[in-house]
Structures are given as C-alpha cells and as structure tokens.
Structure prediction request, 388 residues.
Amino acid sequence: MMPGFGSRLGERVDELLRVAAERRAIPGAVVTIVSRDGLVHESAAGGPPDGARTMFRIASMTKPIIGVAVMMLVEEGKLHLNDPVARYVPEFRDMKVAVAQAGGGARGAGAGGAGPRFYTVPAEREITVRDLLTHTSGLASGGVSNREAQRVALKGKESLADYLPRLGGVPLDFQPGTRWAYSAQAGFDVLARVVEVASGQPFDRFAKQRIFDALGMKDTFFYPAENPRMATLYRRGEKGLEKQNNPGFMNGAYFSGGGGLMSTAEDYLQFGQMLLNGGELNGKRLFGSKTVEVMTSVAAPDTLPGRPRGEGYGLSVRVVSDPIARSSFMSAGTFGWSGLFGTHFFVDPEERIVGILMTQTADQQVRVDFENAVMHAIVGNGTLAGTH
Prediction:
C-alpha cells in the first residue's frame, strides 16, 4: 500500500459512520480494517466506549464459523459434503416438498392468515451437507417451509438435539439443489447439530476448543454473562431507534449455528485474517489452504435462480464472481457475510484486505457504503487496475 492510503481510508470511513449515526441509521459502530501491511484503520463512532473490544450480537456472521467447523471435519474425514443430512439427524430421511395448490392464495397469505394451501410431493433426493452450506436445501427458506416450521418451534431450554429432529417433518420449499433461497436460521442450526454428531462434542465446546482458543478469540461466546462491554441492540421504529431484547432462541442451551454468537471486531478480525492466510494464523493452522479455497469458491453460481447478478455463494459465504455485474469495486473472489443486526465482514484475497463492521441495527446501505469507502480508497491510491 502506498503512503496516505490509511489516512484517506480513515477519513472516508469515519465520515460515513458519522453521517449514518447522525441520521439515526445506526446507534454507533466499530470498524477494523487490515491490509497486507497490517492494521490500516480502526475507529468507533457514535458511542461504543470499548472500541474493537465492544461485544456485538453477530447473528448470521455465525454462519461462516459453522462453515469452518464443517470444513475442518471434512478435511479430517469425519463427514463429507455430499453426505445426506439424515446420516447425522435420521429424522431428515424421506423429506417432502411443498407445492402450492392452484388458486390457493398468494404466497404467505390465505384465509384467516393460515397461508396458501399446498400439498406435498416426495423430495427427489435427500438434502445434503452441501445443500445446507449453500442455502439450496429449501429448508425454512422463506416460503411454506418457514410457516410450517413455526408449528414445531423451539420451546424453553431445548437444545439442538431436542429441537432439530422436529424440523425433519417440515416440508421443503423446493426440490433440493434447484434454486438458492436463504435459510436464515434452520439450515445452519442443522449444520451445528451435524458437527456435534460428527465430532462427538456439543457445538459450543467444539467451537471454543478448535476455533476460538486457537485464534485467540477470547470474547466470542454463545451466551456470555451480562457484560458492560455488550452493545445495546436496537431496531428502527416510528420514533427512531428503539431498544430490543435478545432473540428468543438465545436460551442458554441452544447453540444456534444460524445466528447465536456474540463477538467483537477484535476477535472476528482474527477469524477473517485466518481465512485470508489460507487457514493459518500466528503459527496455528486450523485447516488446509486448499480446503479454504474450496470453502470460499463459488458453489452456487449467480445463474442459479435466487442469486443476484455477479455474486455467487460458496460454502457459508457470499463470493463476488463478477464485480461489474454486481456494480461493485470489490475484487473478484472477495468473500464474506453479514448479520441481521448490522454486522458485516469481507475478505479480499487479491488486495489482501479484511474489513470488519460492527453495529447493532440492521441497515444494508451502511454495509454497502462501508465496502465502497474501503475500495474507493484503494482505487484512489492507484492499487486497483481495470475496475473504473
């Protein structure tokens, strides 16, 4: 990186966060950015007093951690990407697919709020570990399957082992592998259970021993005790930002792979750098560079129904496949993911950059602006070619 990159980037990022906080889009945020030369910029805007050590509910940024856990076990031969999920959770054998009845009402609507009428047909094949990692399983993917899953919802202090077998009786939204549709929680919750069965450990223990401790992620937990460093969770209401409680599935016993972790920018940066380094950080290797390459390559292309142009999906992460089609300055091969409550990370292997954004209110525009601020600073520095 040329001199001046860090200061120019810092000015861009700090300004966008200041504006976002002023318009009450976010309550505050922490950003951390590293390049091939080390830490480039770190700042906190709008309130988080502990900076990069402030704790955030990272929601779906839990999913790439699940992806790493699965790929570690694949590398060890304890499971395979094409394994049927029923090998680990038998209740997922012989699943059905929901088919809307003609004249049965609009999707998500119906008499008495019951939703559209449907019938079921047998799934043409079993759903696999790969299907869950790529959101191509049809399990609780936004249609009838979501509604039917609510009928068997998590209760009290149930664990993954208690609850997930009931999801085996829920119809899928489509035939496995035929489209991409986001399974916000169920798909990766099932993967967390797959890891438990394949490894012989509860998922929280596996993640701590095999990932968090190895990377020095000392502030990444499922259910930490009350902590003064925990950021307040907000939602956007009629009167602006309103405080909200933790989601109900954070019950102290349910280790949600879809969105249960809490972490810090400082911790998650270690995770991102490990992926950038091909599976290794500070002399500790979690898994091989070829396995990381498989995880972060396009597995569900943008030609698959449901994917946006220029952005494929890997094994638990989005992957920029065509920056021009995506209207993005991100390099081809950039990967990462986001969380419902406003957290976001990306890894650009070409430019050797990891960017972490942590906040606690959902605002997609802030995420896009963050990506653009980082990449525009690089472009303005003359380190990118052919992307103007």
Observations:
- Confidence is low (pLDDT under 50) at residues 106-113, 382-388.
- The two ends are 19 Å apart (CA to CA).
- The longest strand covers residues 38-45.
